[in-house]
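YM 10:42: DNA gyrase subunit A sequence, as discussed on the call
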Amino acid sequence: MSEKPPIDPSIQRAEPTSITDIMQTAYIDYSMSVIVSRALPDVRDGLKPVQRRILYAMLREGLLHNRPFDKCAGVVGEVLKNYHPHGDSSVYDTLVRLAQNWVMRHPLIIPQGNFGSIDGDSPAAYRYTECKLENIAEDILRDIDEDTVDFVPNYKESSTEPSVLPSALPNLLMNGSTGIAVGMTTNIPPHNLNEIIEATCAIIDDPKIELDELIQLIPGPDFPGGGFIHGKSGIESYLKTGRGIVRTRGIAEAVESGGKEQIIISAIPYNVNRSSLVIRIAELIKDKAIDGIADLRDESTEETRIVIDLKRGAIPRVIINQLYKMTPLESSFGVILLALDNKRPKQMNIKEMLNCYIDHRREVIFRRTAFRLRKAEARAHILEGYKLALDNLDDFVKIIRASKNRDEAKQALMAKYPLSEIQTNAILELRLYQLTGMERGKIEEEYLALMALIEELRSILENEQKLLGVIKDELGDMKEKYGNPRRSQVLAVDGDLSMEDLVPNEGCMITFTHKGFIKRTSLDEYRSQKRGGKGVIGSGQYEDDFVERLFTASTHDYIMCFMNSGRVYVEKVYHIPEGSRTAKGRAIANVLELQEGERVATTICVKDFEEGDESIVLATEKGVVKKTKLADFKNYRKGGIIGIKIDEGDNLVGARLTGGEDEICLVTSNAQSIRFAETDLRDQGRATRGVRGIKLKSEDDKVVAMEIVDPEAKLLIAGANGLGKRSEFSEYRTQSRGGSGIIAIKSDKVAGALSVTDEDEIMMFTLKGQAVRSPIKDVRITGRAAAGVKLVNLGDKDELIGISKVIASEEDSSEENEAEDEGETAEESTEE
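YM 10:58: structure's back
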């Protein structure tokens, strides 16, 4: 058996190494390659390497905005061939994104063909589509051939490519950027170019400017699709620290079309797929997660328009809030201002980013100026040689003619005259026509212009403020050329978006009908109505339904609805469904989240719940009364809050807003009444029972009305027998709270009581369903204990069971009177 050959000691042997060390080293190399060469944008021009290579390749191909389109396949091939050693799909996907106007605030490429859509449709293959540079992209590339930036070898060292673009615009903040590297990510939203340029110029003017001052110039992102940006805290956070969460919402508006209510979605949040949004809404409708939608249509073209038809009785505000909550119509944009600064990833605030851009432009302008200065000085040097030759033209011609060849002529000229080799070569290449007098004048003129230019260029290089002034002037030109108004509206609220930010604070009319319908109507409806007869405000005839309560309010006021159960529901006025003067309104049960068996006992409108003297006095059928400060109701909830604890079998009958020195009048069904001072009631919390207001003499007795004593009004009391009377409030003496009271009317049963004036009208209801409307002025004013006069004719076994005010339009009445006056005037004129 042969022996093994001896091992050559010069041969290197493999050494054992920990796989952990190998993996760590390899992973770090890989991650840095991804960070620097692929995923993160450069803070100077805002571009990733592949984006920069695409724009540069298109420039070299001559695909300018004023030239014909060319195939995207050619651009992709050029990029792959010379600059980007990766897959063609990554290049084409990037090219497409640079052309999509719903992605880029200012697209850098002009597309022709199918470049996808906001619905998520894929673009056509690059052999079918065409492109060329946008004008704004040419300004990002401008001056690239004037030694403004460094060029580096391409991946195969056959050519060079720019390491960064000159970028005459702050592209990183203008268009934003998104990238996922290894262990880090960037997500920069687009901003308004005008605002970014103003902030940049402000830093140039005052390098020590505070961040708060910059934030005043940059209110927030400006997304291509518009919409709302909700709240400023996230914006201030990322502008100051480089990180923050911006909440965005699409625009959804309730409109009325053809008598039906619709919700029109005219804008969607940034990076939301419109088709997916429509599908999500359809799924919620199918699963009945959102109720009240009759139909859904996507009528979008280039502009977003999603139409949602609502069912009768549906509340647009509720459905809009559900859409925001359950669909991507409300989205969050997590901002991370991370970019490469000197090839190192760095998270920056807004001032640091703009400072990096200013430093880049300072270097670009300095290098461009130095390049132009060298070029101008070289040309001036040649022109000086021309001038010397023209001044000694005959001698120059003689020397040249006497020389055997070009080299001998050059040496002879340089030996006799102070000429450089460059000047001599230029003189020898002169053509004969350039020796004419006219050409000599052009040379002199060009030389003087060059000397002025050289002086100007030198002053820029020597004066820092002048160089910064050039940057400002060029940014001003860019602003004038490409600036446009802000598309995204920034709302100053945080938390849930309130309609109050979208609704103007203006006057309106609130209408409550007897059958439980409510609506809000603009005051303009009443100012613009046609002249005509007096009628009921609302819809339908008064036998069918009529207005019980009508009052003017501001859209930012609050409406407090007190239920018979003692619960209170509070809504902003702008949440009340809007309707025309003749519209029926919306059922209260569809506006408030009522509990089973609840009905509205009364309503009160207030401007706010600030601390003050105002209180709310409540009364129940069993004679219990309670006074609570208005401010105690400020922490209201959507599902209602307790206004008074009601005993079993009792019901709330009234609520009145008092000022601290008012007097209360209670009337019972057994014709008893009591008047007492508000000061007899101590302030109590909301969730308390109250105290006795009137002592009921029998179990079948109950309070039917509570009114505030008004010296200008009268107290109308209607008996169940159809008789009623009006009395001065002075007829009812003031007593202490809690007594049995005094007789209110000579009647066995009282149907109701109201505080009325001569202009009021009432509606009376009978047990058998009769409804009679009557003016108050026909009811006689009598003493407290009188039986009164007949209010309504009752049939056999019928009785009056309730009365309510009917609210008529005073403007209608005044217009009717004006019309009658005009008619009389016309008749008098005719007789004359």
